[in-house]
Amino acid sequence: MSVNRIALIILLLWAGLAILAPFLPLSSNEVQLDKILQAPQLSAWLGYDDLGRPILHRLIIGAQTSFYVAVWVTVLSLVFGCFIGCLAAYLGGWVDELVVRVIDVFLAVPGILLAIAFAGFIGPGLSNLVLALSLVGWVGYARLTRAQVLSVKQRDHVQAAKALGSSTGFIMRKHLLPLISAPLIVESSFGIAGIVIAEAGLSFLGLGVQAPDASWGSMIRDGTMYMLISSHMVLAPGIAIMLVVFAVNYFGDSLRDRMDVRS
User: Fold this and answer.
1) pTM above 0.90, yes or no
2) What CATH class does 3-24+46-259 carry?
């Protein structure tokens, strides 16, 4: 089986579990004191955690959490970043100068630190986590969109549409965005991997999903106290994060190769 097919299977499994999680008979929050820290077995493939909750069930809920955050953050960041970058490059002048300065300010600070600051300011929770990551994620899309629009806005069909009196919104929607969609799609595929890691990191710090809801990051945090006696509490979510990030990055590489017009 090729690596490409393995990556695709992992992505489909991740998305499928996330979508089907509400309809599965899961008992992710059911406390069973007689099963605390039990190792993997036939009745529970990944064992139980420090409260006797099945890790497999919580892993599935964690997949739903990471998928929800990845999709919403990518969509919000892509839409807002594309709009800002396209508008700045097309209008130019002081608008472009202002946007460039704002982007430079955001890029001067590591994104994860900004996300931690935003999440700490607006408070923990799933919706606030999506908002915090979106406030950081739009910058990369805005920068890429601006650079791409600057390279295509002088093309003949764009200038013709402008001469015919087409509105700015129409030109951006019909003439500019179709030309720059390929690099934006590739960038968003790579961005998903970063979002999965960022969500896990913020949940690990207690700034993401709150108990009793499950997240891969919070599962790792809970398992660090029992690594020497119940390492399966950390290994299960850790391997899940590794596999998803690998699959997303490999898929992004394949997508970039296929959409590269030079090849």
Assistant:
1) no
2) mainly alpha
